[in-house]
Amino acid sequence: xxxxxxxxxxxxxxxxxxxxxxxxxxxxxxxxxxxxxxxxxxxxxxxxxxxxxxxxxxxxxxxxxxxxxxxxxxxxxxxxxxxxxxxxxxxxxxxxxxxxxxxxxxxxxxxxxxxxxxxxxxxxxxxxxxxxxxxxxxxxxxxxxxxxxxxxxxxxxxxxxxxxxxxxxxxx
Length: 172
Prior knowledge:
By secondary structure, the chain is of the alpha/beta class. Helices cover 32% and strands 13% of the residues. It comes from Paenibacillus borealis. Keywords: DNA damage, DNA repair, Hydrolase.
């Protein structure tokens, strides 16, 4: 199965970082393509996008200052299928991408994504204010996973993503 291409560029406000693509995303070639995934609804409801986007439009979000990548590029049924070796290689690749593109914010879609990347034992929701970032100058934000399996109520998830919207629109 093909890897889902990154959508990265210089000057982005936010790069959303997942564990890895789902099998559905791998089939379609787009981020967060599983219809049970709430990612696109969360972005709209939090104000991060002006309308509800479809996964097939993921590349269009570059125009909004939003990019996409993952720690591991290989699509799998679940994160439990990712090997330690893939995580080790993926951490290095992700660090290199963040160093090269220098987004204002690296948004980790799930606490596990952040702890796997940073190797820190725990994380709070939102900006990691009291922790040295992995890539100097790139602010780290931890958001709930958008998976349909997450038990957190949708309004709570949206409220956390809204903090990211508030930060990126503070000059408005």
